[in-house]
Amino acid sequence: MRKTTSFLIFLLILLWGSTACGKVYIDINSPAFQKFPVAIPEFKNIGKPGTEKNYPAWFADQLSRTLKITGFFKLISKDAFLENQDNTNLTAEEIDFSNWSSIGSDFLIKGGFSYDGSRLSVEFRLFDTIEGKLVTGKKYWGKPDEKKIMVLRFADEILMALTGKAGVFDTKIAFIGKKGNSSEVYTVNFDGSDLDRITDFNSLTLLPHWSPDGSEISFTSYKNGNPDCYIINPAKRKTRRISSFSGLNLLTSWSSNGKQALIVLSRDGNEEIYIKYLRSGKLQRLTRAHAIDVSPAWSPDGQKIAFVSNRSGSPQIFIMDSEGKKTKRLTFEGYYNSSPCWSPDGTRIAYAGSSNGQFQIFTIGENGDKLMQLTFEAGGGESPSWSPDGRYLVFSSKKNGQGRICVINSNGLSLRVLPGINGVKTYQSPSWSRHLNLY
Amino acid sequence: MSMTFLSEANHGDTLSLDNMVVLSFLLHALILSIIFFSPSLPSPRWTFGPSYTVDLVSSPLSSVEVRSSEAISREAVSMNHRNQSMVMKKEVERGLSAPVRKTEILRKSPTGNVDTAIEGIKKRVESATNDSRPSTARGNSEINLKMRVYYSVVWSMIKEQWALPKSILPDDNLEAIVETNILRNGTVSNLTFEKRSGNRYFDESVIKAIKKADPFPPLPEWLDKRYITLGVRFHSSEL
Questions:
Q1: A437 pLDDT tier (thresholds 50, 70, 90)
Q2: Is residue B179 part of a domain?
Q3: Which sequence spans correspond to the domains of chain A?
Q4: ipTM score of the complex?
C-alpha cells in the first residue's frame, strides 16, 4: 500500500514538473497572400512536330490571362522558371516538383496539344507542387477556333477544384456607353472581350438589366420623347415596349422567375414603386409616400425589396417586404446612398454611397451590420451589380474625366478595368448577367 | 537511474523497505526540483500537461534582429516582471461605433499591422531602457527570449507561405489548429490536425503553408531536446 502511495506521489510530481515545458501555440491571423501562386509553362506539342508553332505560348498566355482576371491567382513570371523549357513531362511521376515549389509556386499547370490538320486535341493538368500530385486533368477535342472555349472550361475546372465554385466565364456584362448626346446599351464578356452594341436608338438610353435567364435585357429610352421602358432580345435584336406612362418608366429589377419586374413610375406626380406583371401588364403599387421612392431591388428569394427613398430627409436605402409593408431603414452612414443590389445569396446589399463628396461602393449586411467600403479610388464608383457567384461586383466610375467599367472582388481586392470603347467618354449602370451557358 | 537505486536499497542490512521508499521519494523530489527550477539545466522532454500560448499576431522579427543584446536583455527583464506569459500581441482596436470606421479596420493591410507591432515593441524597449530593476531574473528571461525569437522565425516563415484568397471563405472567422514536431535539424516530422476548421480549402491551405515553410532553422543548440512540439493556430481573419 505504502509502495503504491509513494509511486503515485512520485507520478504526481513528475506530471507537475512536466508542465514547465508544455506545447507552445503560435497564432497566425489572416493569410499573407490573397492569391494562389501558380506557374504555367508553355504547352507542349505532343503531336506532329512543327505544326501550330504559336500554340504553346498562346495556351499558356490565354490561361494565365483568364486566371488572373478571376483575382484569385498570382502568376509566377516565366523568368523565374527553373525547369528546362524543352521538358515535355506531363505526369506527376516525371515532373520534378521542387523546381516549381522552390520558386514559390503552389500550383503548376501543364498542358500538351496535338493537331492533325482538322482536329485539335488539348490536355490540361493542374498539379499541387507541394504535395506533388495531380489535382485535376482534362482532355478536350475540337476545332482550332474552339481553343479559347477549351481554356475557359479548364479554368472553370481549376476554380472548382481550388475554391469550390465554378467561375463566371460564361457571363456577360451589359452597360450604357454614352457618345455625344446619345447613349446605347452594350454587352461585353466577363473578360472584356466580344464587345457588342445592342441598341441603335440614337437617343438617351438608361438602366439596362438582364432578365434572369439571360435571354433579354430591359432598359429605358427616350426614343419616343418620353422615358419609356423596353425589353430587347440581344440575339434576335427584337425590341418590345412594356411601359409608356407619362413621366419616368424605369425597370430596375426582375423577379427570379422572370414573370414580374419592379418598376418606378412618376405618373402620379412623384416616383413610386410598382410590381409589373410582364405577361398581363397588370400593375401593383407598393409605395404611397410623398417622398421619392426609386431603385427597387428584389432579394433573391423575392421576400424583400431594397429601395432608395428620401422620406427621412436625404436619400437612404430602405427595406420593405414584397407587399410594400414593414419598411425599415437600412443605411445610416453617409448623407446620400443609392443603387442597392442584393448579393446572390441574399446576405448582403451593395450600394453606392457618398463619401468625401464622391460616390464609392459599399456593401452592408441585410440587417445593417458589417458595413464595408470596397472602393477608395479617386474615380469613385456607382451602380454596383453582383456577379452570379457573388464573388465580384461590377460598377461604373469616372477618373480624370474618362468613364470606365470596373470589376472588383467582393472583399475589395483585385480591381480591374474593362477595356473602353473608342469615343465613349461616359459609362453607366453596368448589369451582370446570370450564367448564360455560352459553352 | 531510479530502478538502480531501489535495487541497491533492497540489499541494505539496516534500512527497512519503507524507509528506503521515503528516502527514494525525497531524493527524487529534490532532483526533480533542481531540474525544473534551475534555469541553467536543460529542460525535460515531456510535452504533456497544460500548454503555453505565444501570441505572435504581427512579426516582431525584424525588430528583434536589429536590436542590441543589451536592449533585448533590458526588454526581457522588463517584460518578465510585468507579465510572465510570452505575449507579443498588439492591442487590437475593438468596438468602434461608426460602421464607416469599421470598414477602415477591415481594410487594414498586413503591412500596417506589422508596422504597428514594431512600433509597440520599440515602445516597450524604450520603456525598458529606463527600468532600473535588478537583473536576477535575467537568465530565465534570456532563455524565454531566445525561444521566443525562434518561435518568431517559425511564425514568420509559416505566415509568409500562407496563401488563400479570403473571398472564397465564409464571412465567419475560421480556426484550424495544426500540431507539428520540429526536429533538431529544423525539419518537420509530423503534421496532424488538432482542430479542423470545417472548410476544406482553409484546412488544405494551412497544411500547405507549413509544408512550404519546412525546413525551419535548427533548434537552438542549448536546447536539449530531440524535437519540439508546436501547435499552430490559423485564423482566417485578424482577431
A1: confident
A2: yes
A3: 36-163, 172-432
A4: 0.71
Residues of chain A neighbouring B211 (CB-CB closer than 8 A): 130-131
Using 50, 70 and 90 to split pLDDT, how confident is the model at A19?
very low
The answer on B232 and B172 residing in a single domain is yes
pTM for this prediction:
0.72
Q: Which residues of B104-131 are buried (b: 16+ CB within 10 A; e: fewer)?
A: eeeeeebeebbebbbebbeebbeebeee
Q: What is the pLDDT of residues A202-225, one digit of tens each?
A: 999 999 999 999 999 999 999 999
- Total domain count for chain B? 3
Q: Is A26 on the interface with B (CB under 8 A)?
A: yes
Mean pLDDT score of chain A? 89
Q: Assess A376–B contact: CB distance below 8 Å, yes or no.
A: yes
SS (H, E, C) chain A: CHHHHHHHHHHHHHHHHHHHHCCEEEEEECCCECCEEEECCCCEECCCCCCCCCHHHHHHHHHHHHHHHHCCEEECCHHHCCCCCCCCCCCCCCCCCHHHHCCCCCEEEEEEEEECCCCEEEEEEEEECCCCEEEEEEEEEECHHHHHHHHHHHHHHHHHHHHCCCCCCCCEEEEEEEECCEEEEEEEECCCCCCEECCCCCCCEEEEEECCCCCCEEEEECCCCCCEEEEEECCCCEEEEEECCCCCEEEEEECCCCCEEEEEECCCCCCEEEEEECCCCCEEECCCCCCCEEEEEECCCCCEEEEEECCCCCCEEEEEECCCCCCEECCCCCCCEEEEEECCCCCEEEEEEEECCEEEEEEEECCCCCCEECCCCCCCCEEEEECCCCCEEEEEEEECCEEEEEEEECCCCCCEECCCCCCCCEEEEEEECCCCCCC
Q: Residue B166 and residue A34: Cβ atoms within 8 Å?
A: yes
* Whole-angstrom distance, CA of residue A135 vs CA of residue A34: 20
* Topology annotation, domain A36-163: Rossmann fold (3.40.50)
What is the amino acid identity at position B56? L
Name the pLDDT band for A52 (thresholds 50, 70, 90).
confident
Range name among A10-19, A82-91, A238-247, A249-258 with the lowest pLDDT average: A10-19
Of B50, B164, B239, the CB nearest to A19: B50
Q: pLDDT-derived band of residue A39, with 50, 70 and 90 as boundaries?
A: very high
Q: Do A31 and B164 touch (CB under 8 A)?
A: yes
CB contact under 8 A, A30 and B110: yes
Look at residue B101 and tell me if it is in a domain.
yes
A26-35, A39-48, A297-306, A407-416, range with the lowest pLDDT: A26-35
Question: Going by CATH, does the domain composed of A172-432 fall within 2.120.10.30?
Answer: yes
C-alpha distance from B57 to closest chain A C-alpha (Å): 6
Cβ-Cβ contacts under 8 Å, A347 against chain B: 171
Residue B65's pLDDT is 36
Question: Pick from A3, A28, A413: which is nearest to B162 by CB?
Answer: A28
